[in-house]
Amino acid sequence: MPPVTLSFEVHQPHRLRVDGVKKDADALYDRYFDDEMNEHFFKDVAENCYFPATERLLRAAKELEGTENELKVNFSISTSWIEQAKEYHPELIDMLNSFPDSSIDFIGQAYFHSLAGLFEDKEEFRWQLNHHREIIEDTFGVTPQVMTNTELIYHNEIGKIAGEEGYKGIFTEGADRILGWRSANHTYKVPEFVAEDSPAIMLRNRKLTDDVGYRFSAEWWSEFPLTAEKYAAWIDETEGDMINLFMDYETFGEHHWEGTGILWFLEALPHEFAERDIKFAKVRDVVEENEPVGEFDAFEYNTVSWADQEMDASAWLGNPMQKMLFEKMQDLESKVKKLDDPEIKDVWRKFLTSDHLHHIATKTYEDGNVHNYFSYFDHPHEGFAVITEHLMDFQQQVEKKLASK
C-alpha cells in the first residue's frame, strides 16, 4: 500500500491599503500595506482554522507517536505567514514546534509567496529560495529538503533551479496535459536535455485532494457527506508509489466551516488510516525512497500550477492588467537592487506576493468565484487601480532615492 504525504499550504499575504497610499506614514511599509486589515484576517482565520486544526493534528501526532502508524504532516509555510504569526499569535509557532520530530516536516518555497519564479532573470528567485529556507531553519529548526514554488507554479527551468539550489525534490500539480496516461502517484524527473541531475518531481493527487479541499461540503456532490472512513477506503484502494495530498490549510474551518464537520473529519482521519494500516510519510523520505519512473516535461510556455481549471499561470497573468503590473514589478528589480536599501527591497518583495495579481483576475464561472472569494477588493478593476497607485508611488520613491545618491 503506498504511503500518504499529507501537506498543507499555510499563507497570509500583506494586504494593500484599499483607500490609497498613506503619504504621511513614517515607514515605507506603512505607506502601502494595511496592518489593521492583516491583523483582522489573521486573527479571524486563526480562530476558525489555525488553532483548532493544529490542535487536532498535534493531539493525533502525540497519540500515535511511536506506533507503526505515526501521523506525519508536512507544512509549506510562507514567510509572510510567519511574520504575521509572530506579531499576532506567536503561540501558533510554539504549537508547530511542539510536534514530535518524527511527525512533522517543512517544505521550502519562495520568499513572501512571490511570483519571482516567473521572472526572466532567475537571480532573485534563487535568493528567495535560499532566504526562505534560512527562515524555516531559524523558526522551526528544520532544513527543508523538498520545495514548492508559489501555488505549485512549475516549468522545467524551475525544476532545474530547485536541484541547483540543493533541493532533493519539488512539488507541482499532476496536470493531465503533461502526465497523459501516467499516474500522479509516482515521482518524475526533469528531462535530461534540461538537467542531468534532477530533483524528484512530486505530483499532487488532484482528485483525492480536491475531494476534501473543494467538495467536502458540496451537497450536490454524489459522495456527500464525506466521512473519514469513506475517504480512508478510497486511499486504501489507490495504487502507486505514494499518494500526495496537498491542500490549503484553511480548508479546515475557514473554507469549510466547523459546522460542516470538516474538523471532526481531520481529527478522525489519522485514526482511520491507522485502522487500515495506511502509512503517512514525510516528503523528504518519499524523495529518498523512490526512483523517478519517467520525465515530467513542462516547458516554459506550458507552465503548470494548481490554480483554476487551466492549471497554468493564467490565474496571475491571464489578463492585460495582470501582465502590465507583473512587468512593472519585474522592471523595478534593477533599480531596487542598484539602490541596495533594505527597506526598499523588503517592500518590493512584498509587492511580488502572488495574491495581489490573483485578486485582479477576470475569470468567470467557478474559477471566477474562487478569485472573488479570496479577494478583498470589490471588483478586479478596483484592485488594479489600487495596486497601480501603490506601485507607481513606490517607483517614484525609488527613483527619488536613486537621484539623491
From TrEMBL:
Its EC number is 3.2.1.1. The keyword Hydrolase applies. Pfam families: Glyco_hydro_57. Keywords: Carbohydrate metabolism, Glycosidase, Hydrolase. One of its GO terms (molecular function) is alpha-amylase activity. Residues 6-294 form the Glycoside hydrolase family 57 N-terminal domain. The keyword Transmembrane does not apply. It comes from the Archaea. Belongs to the glycosyl hydrolase 57 family. PANTHER family: ALPHA-AMYLASE-RELATED, ALPHA-AMYLASE-RELATED-RELATED. This is Alpha-amylase, glycosyl hydrolase family 57.
